Amino acid sequence: MTIRVLLVDDQPLLRTGFRMILEAEQDIAVVGEAGDGLQAQEQVRVLQPDVVLMDIRMPRMDGVEATRQITGPGRDGPAKVLVLTTFDLDEYVVEALRAGASGFLLKDAPANELVQAIRVVAAGEAMLAPSITRRLLDKYSAHLPTGEEQVPDTLNTLTDRELEVLKLVARGLSNAEIAADLFVSETTVKTHVGHVLTKLRLRDRVQAAVYAYESGLVRPGGNQ
């Protein structure tokens, strides 16, 4: 099945570079381009891409608001957003994740990482690499709970195993890595992740990871 990708960046040369990389892959097709968030919204409606490769800093409408408009409540299209950032941690990345992005990638990432990230996001998982997660938490740890706050009642709806899985998701582990850590199959992990998302009313793994830190279930610098 071909993954339909929309490129959104205000720099034409970057869009051209991304297009060349992606169109070399048999399972990926670039169906359109946009130079700002407003154009991105229009293109998503018309082209119905599977993945939107979204820049953060753009004129007229930035990537955060565009992501919110594309993936927010009431949107039932297939588009998932993979955010691109120039810096290790753009200050808007957290807001983009909250807005509905399925992950983020550095613009200077190797071509194979870009291709893999698009495949991961298209498959419904989150591009939440452990190394990036750690930098994210280091930057924003001052704004996260200390662990002394009362744990939300919603966590009580999870089983012990589901709590374990949520903690590992928050650390940035993939399904395969979680399966190896817990000595279970990947199918079992997918089932647990699905239960966690349903019970906590979360959209995807990114929201689950943010929730785990915001609730105090997981703390920066520790595994629990």
UniProtKB/TrEMBL annotation:
Name assigned to this protein: DNA-binding response regulator
Record-annotated Response regulatory domain positions: 4-122
GO molecular function list: DNA binding
Entries under Pfam families matching the protein: GerE, Response_reg
GO BP, sorted A to Z: phosphorelay signal transduction system; regulation of DNA-templated transcription
Superkingdom field: Bacteria
Alphabetically ordered keywords of this record: DNA-binding, Phosphoprotein, Transcription, Transcription regulation
InterPro entries named among the record's database cross-references: CheY-like_superfamily, NreC/VraR/RcsB-like_REC, Sig_transdc_resp-reg_C-effctor, Sig_transdc_resp-reg_receiver, Tscrpt_reg_LuxR_C, WalR-like
Residues with the 4-aspartylphosphate modification: D55
SMART domains: HTH_LUXR, REC
Domain HTH luxR-type per the UniProt entry, residue ranges: 151-216
